UniProtKB/TrEMBL annotation:
Pfam families: AAA_11, AAA_12, R3H, SMUBP-2_HCS1_1B. SMART domains: R3H. Its main location: cytoplasm. SUPFAM superfamilies: P-loop containing nucleoside triphosphate hydrolases (SSF52540), R3H domain (SSF82708). It is found in: Cytoplasm; Nucleus. Residues 652-693 are annotated as: Disordered. This is DNA helicase. Residues 659-672 have a biased composition (Basic residues). Belongs to the DNA2/NAM7 helicase family. It comes from Ornithodoros turicata. Residues 690-752 form the R3H domain. Keywords: ATP-binding, Cytoplasm, Helicase, Hydrolase, Nucleotide-binding, Nucleus.
Amino acid sequence: LDAFVERHSELLELERNEEVEQNAKAQERFTLKELENKGLVIKRVSLDSCCTGLYGRRIFKFRAWKRGAPLPANKFASGDIASIVLASDAAREGICSGVVTSITQSVISVAVDNDGDDSLCYDDGRPFHLFKLANDVTFRRLKRTLEKMRKKREIRFSPLIELLFGTTKPTSASEMRNPGNALRYLNENLDASQKEAVQFALSQKEVCIIHGPPGTGKTTTIIEVVLQLVRNGSKVLVCAPSNIAVDNLVEKLISYEGRVKVVRLGHPARVLPEIQRYCLDAVVERSKIYSIMENMRKELDSLLSAAKKGCVTNRCREAHRRRDKQRELQLLEQHAVEMTLRDTDVVLSTLTTASEEGPLNRLPPEFFDVAVVDECSQALEVACWMALLRAPKCVLAGDHLQLPPTIVSKRAADGGLSLTLMERLLKLHGNSIVKMLTVQYRMNADIMRWSSDKLYEGKLEAHNSVEHHLLRDVPGVVDNKATSTPLLLIDTAGCGMYELDTVHKDSKSNEGEADLVCIHVENLISSGVKAADIAVISPYNLQVELLQLRLRSKHDDLEIQSVDGFQGREKEAVVMSFVRSNTKGTVGFLAEERRINVAVTRARRHLAVVCDSATVSRHPFIKSLVDYLTTNGSVQCAREYSADLARRRSLRPSNVKLNQKKVSTKSQKSKKHETTMGAAHKPKDGGQDDGKKERVVEEVEKFFASTETSYTFPSTLSSYERNLVHEVAEKFGLWHIKLGGLANRRIMLRKL
């Protein structure tokens, strides 16, 4: 344990330093205007009002400097951390920071803890800037958790800590009373593997892992475990790494209202509106002493209002009175919080909210009987310990064969920060503490089978409700080739659709693949598939940006995401671009098997993969996927789309700069001559230009569709028309060469 604490303390420092450095570079690299264009700052706002919220937090409401004007476009959202900076401060040093509680077109509200700077309350008409911040709260809480782990072990023997670090072995389930024989399930629709997992979780004394591959109903199983624990009289803490995951658990639990009392911790701004009534703040508001607290807040607001009108001396005196009242209010609120938490069956929160700094510090150690951590394979191990230190038993759920938590620092990741608790425990204790769910309710069996065989020992089976479902079965979708196949491979091998050679190497894109994705998406939509039922995903952010540029304006409901950003989601149809296409066979971070697994298992009825099989098959794992698609799916060569490709207008993000290849002086002169010749023959009339291009495209299409293997354009073409032939032939994947001298210049096309 001591070695773990020391090592992870160092790794967390590396991670935090890298995050701060990247954030600082962004702040330094961009001007205020550039940050505004990126949505990372709201410039020149005025303080509209200030009032007191729960826990004595001050709520500051800001509006646009020009009264009545809307706030500029921005990326702020409820729950973000905002730094409040005086517009006159060129150093951009914040007065204080807080959590965005709400944002409308004209007003943004920021909640600041009561230990913030009082000077902000005395508005003297100064303009402010609001900056989005990198948040250090999580880092601070993780460090304190490490220290708490060490201290807890020093104070007294902790069986769970000893077990999870390998000092002791888990108690065999056979040694415990098995409640499965008399178990009455609240959810009668559980399958056999889910029931077995529930029984196993209840019968284990110290630890249980529920391994939930994609679509197997992991969350449904966890909910049954929690309900059974409550029925047995246990107090349960349920945590997950993200607010969305916690909200998903709350939504499912409250459907059993009357059987279980639920409280959701966390800032209300970070919670879905439909479950805000179950937040701690809302539950406290319904308590008997809330009216007393509300009167005290009004008194505080009155004192603040009076102080604004008084002189500086009075302000100082009133500030002392306000602080006394705030302390009195805090004590009352803490009592209300403690009573609320003690009265509930299940407390739910993100892992970081379960720390010592949160509301749970009002409860005694090990108040909870069981700590449940969902999606533990997506969390840092240290984060999981925030919950595990609060109970003598834990139930962990996740899938270590999907993507782990995102880590910014490569040194920290390589040093062991990326190793999750779930992975470590499986290596330490093996199958003695795990049950895997085996029936999946998402994918067509053909989509499922590859990941099942490669990663899940062939144990997954498709439920009969999804086993054969296809896009054509969706109401309003026509039955055609695209909608009747669950698997499609569009192969660009040998078609010259290479990835872009960009100046910035931090991401990759491929324009040819982007065009093919667009064509296939439009085919699906024209077949009746709703854009909202389609996801376009790629491992590379630059490719995502390229696809958004080409598709978003036509289809607002179409979701275009990175693979990492789409984890945990699903769509009826998924179209995926692998991007990598190069002569070296380099696949980059496509080599991360878990990323490929996530990408493939998002699709319910239709999966289309666009890739260069010659490049990506250099990696054995991806080759197995390409081979599977080739054997079990429909395969199309990119050349089959040549006619559609020739008609597409390419769009490229403005920030993409290509590497310029160095050419000899002779080549430059030749190129200049060719360009000049082309320009001299280019028609001035745009209509004539379009007409000539259409005739060239028509001629090339006719040859492409024929049985002929070669075709020669006559010498009567102008240099402009010859350039058009080369351009169109390239898009059709045809071999093209100039023949004859300058006076008798012809172009020959050949099919490859």
